[in-house]
């Protein structure tokens, strides 16, 4: 026998072991209390993992690991379920985590506000060329109910800071 036989285990076992070994979100670095396993940009839930019973060896597992990510629920929601049309939500979130001293809950609040605002703009079929103009944020605010002005204005101001930072890089 010229080669060493590698023991095969079900893929689900590898995934469970991987999931339990992760302590921090791969995107924001937050300590994980509850986590989501993401493979090739798609969330893998507990039921899907249980059905992954095909036997694989360590070599195959090692080749799959770079495509796996342990994420907090917030990051998985943004990266896998969010498709913004007007705002670059992913880059904005990354900027807030990496270049500001905000706590996680504040970042989450800004991102949620921008996502809601993005959804409102889509529903209203807001013209993309109007959005791209430099004074667009005041036009957006003017079109919102008065109660929401302050809430969204703060988020838009932070987004403008992000855009200025991105232009300077």
UniProtKB/TrEMBL annotation:
It comes from the Bacteria. This is Putative regulator of FliA activity. The gene is fliZ.
